[in-house]
Amino acid sequence: MSVRRNLLRLHAALVLGALVGVLAGCEGEHPQSTFRPVTEYGVILDRLFDHTVWWTMPVLALVWIVLLYVVFRYRERPDAATPRQIHGNAKLEVAWTIGPAIIVAAIAVPTIRTIFAVQPKPPADALKVEVIGHQWWWEFRYPDFGGITTANELRIPTGRTIDLVMRSADVIHSFWIPRIGGKRDVNPLPAQPGHPEHGATTAHPNHIIFRTDSVGVFYGQCAEYCGDSHAVMRVRAVVSTPEDFDRWVQAMNVAPAPAPGSLEAQGKQIFETHACVACHTVNGTNARGVLGPNLTNVGQRLYIGDQDRLKTTPENLARWITNPQEFKPGAKMPGTKQSGGGLPPTGLTDEQVRAVAAYLYSLGRTTPAAPAPTTTTDTTSTSGMK
Ligand code: CUA
Q: Which 8-state DSSP code applies to residue 302?
């Protein structure tokens, strides 16, 4: 008897615990919620989700009511007679065959319609962005703007259809920014000769096509297990007004020119004479490596290397350069004392790291403004990053 009572207590505790867990889910900001979509794509998916949930609710209710009724009504009692035994019931069997079939159809039809609705042909004036998944970062190329390239931070304007053309440089990844839509697999595809920038492969790259009118930063992450640092393969979309977006595009083509003798100038010199340039590009300099993220205007990005822990500051840039493995286990970038990606440690001293960090931090922050509809000399324009 006391065993049974303990079991009951255990059950009650579990139910209570689950309830607290469920309710706790209602708290907080949820930057990666699918329930607050900012695109038509996201709205369509959210609607389908709601539709499906509502069809399953009566099933849930029916099953629980019948289950609880049977459990209590026919529970074992010392004086109870054996209930009447039933074998087969044609009406009931027909009902529980037709009922679920109707429900499946009610869910399947909108699902299939949604699948087609979210895979339209992009309009001719869509802004094409090539998305390339790498272990463990995202590359974004803009063939419409001379192939300017950035990493981890997808920059897009409001009010224009965006066509993400996606492939992977290594294993399968999955691109997912919940408030925008998706997710969708990012598969290894060969770049086509002559059109490496355009994703014009015959092998059908996956697309995500959407449009948003919401200025803001929307967070996401890789949604397909892809190795050691899959869990920190994050991504964010920075959506700004078309004017701010144009300003960003222009700034991406301005060569950095740190003041002679400054810490930044020292950093530039160290950056360009050490292993950094083997993997990284900074537009307008002799850094032309393509194995790692393109660092043009990296100082403008909200985060560096680790979207959760490293806001872009000189200190955090230095931490990342010193030991990337601390933030992304298995990162293919060596630290000052640790090897990485088959490359030996860079051997940079703390002083050198500080200079390089200052240089990188200045990129996009101190460059004089390109001709732009603005009087400020700072091209970093924080609009769109609020
Ligand atoms: Cu890339 Cu998981």
A: S
Tell which residue, 123, 129, 158, has the closest CA to residue 245: 158
Alpha carbon nearest to ligand 1 atom 1, residue? 173
CA of 176 to the centre of ligand 1 (A): 10
In angstroms, what is the span from residue 182 Cα to ligand 1's centroid?
A: 14
Give the separation between CA 92 and CA 361, rounded to whole angstroms: 71
Separation between Cα atoms, residue 157 and residue 246, nearest integer Å: 8
Q: Choose the weakest-confidence range: 198-202, 272-276, 293-297, 333-337.
A: 198-202
Least confident window among 102-116, 142-156, 372-386: 372-386
Query: DSSP E strands: which ranges in the chain?
Result: 127-134, 137-142, 148-151, 153-157, 162-168, 173-177, 181-186, 206-210, 216-221, 234-240
- Distance between CA atoms of 278 and 291, rounded to whole angstroms? 8
- The answer to whether 144 and 128 have CB atoms below 8 angstroms apart is yes
Model's pTM, two decimal places? Answer: 0.82
199 C-beta closer than 6 A to ligand 1: no
Report the separation in Å between the CA atom of 250 and the middle of ligand 1, taken as the mean of its atom positions: 31
List the one residue out of 132, 159, 128 whose CA is nearest residue 145: 128
Element (H, E) at 267: helix 263-273
Token pair for 16: 């209570």
168 C-alpha vs ligand 1 centroid, how far in Å? 10
Q: Judge contact between 327 and 333, C-beta under 8 A.
A: no
- Residues 126 and 38: their CA atoms lie apart, in Å, by 18
Query: Greater confidence, 368 or 277?
Result: 277
What is the distance between the alpha carbons of residues 245 and 98, in angstroms, rounded to a whole number? 54
CA distances to 274, 319, 322, 336 from 350, in Å: 14, 10, 8, 9
CA distances for 85 relative to 62, 75, 80, angstroms: 22, 15, 14
Is the shortest distance between the CB of 225 and ligand 1 below 6 Å? yes
CB count, 10 Å around CB of 56? Answer: 12
What are the structure tokens assigned to 229, written together?
């640092």
DSSP class of 39: B
